[in-house]
């Protein structure tokens, strides 16, 4: 099985790209969805997050859940608080990611995609045979992000600081998906990536155990 990492900075169009891979029948792991699962009703991380950040857990119809609106201000612009949260979430997210790959391997999938916004930052690129980076010019990124409900200049700047710069991501990429030239161009990029990678032999699965 060949593992393709999919990443891109905020506002670059990564979610749309991930959906396109799914449309073409490629299984895609969604790191953001994994976090929502872990912090949603009855999620495995809810209790630990509640202990680390008192007052952020509320009762939902299907069990206790983390209120992201309450949690956000507690970790915004606070590196120590964010590190505490990541220490809770990252090992659990990694378990879900590995289970996704196990199931894909059991189905004898030729290609699997890991959609991880912070792919390089959290080291998930080490699991990948190749990396596809979704990119667009900075001016277009800015327009897209600031048009989102509740987004501010400060919040945008903070998110950018937490992410590897787009230029550095592009340097590390094996494939680029340019999203500023229209949807058809982006889809063509993705179809080409699938054609190139689907018959390649992967070397990252199963992962080698550290000595």
Please give a structural write-up:
This protein is of the alpha/beta class and 211 residues long. It folds into 2 domains: 128 residues, P-loop containing nucleotide triphosphate hydrolases (Rossmann fold), CATH 3.40.50; 78 residues, no CATH class. 49% of the residues lie in helices and 15% in strands. The protein is built from 9 helices and 7 strands. The strands form 2 sheets. It has a 5-stranded parallel sheet, sandwiched between helices. Strands 3-4 form a two-stranded antiparallel ribbon. Helix 2 packs across helix 5. It is globular and about 50 Å long. The two termini are 23 Å apart.
The CATH topology annotation of the largest domain reads as Rossmann fold
Reported for the largest beta sheet, the result is: 5 strands, parallel
Radius of gyration: 18 Å
Query: Count of DSSP helices?
Result: 9
Question: Could you say which overall geometry the principal axes of the C-alpha atoms support?
Answer: globular
**Structural class, please?**
alpha/beta
Physical arrangement of strands within the biggest beta sheet? 2-5-1-6-7
Strand tally, please? 7
Helical fraction equals: 40-55%
CATH superfamily of the largest domain: P-loop containing nucleotide triphosphate hydrolases
Low-confidence stretches: none
> How many domains in all?
2
CATH architecture of the largest domain: 3-Layer(aba) Sandwich
Question: Can you give the mean pLDDT?
Answer: 94
The N- and C-terminal alpha carbons lie at a distance of 23 Å
What oligomeric state do these chains adopt? single chain
| Helix-strand topology string | EHEHHEEHHEEHHHEH
CATH uppermost class of the largest domain? Alpha Beta
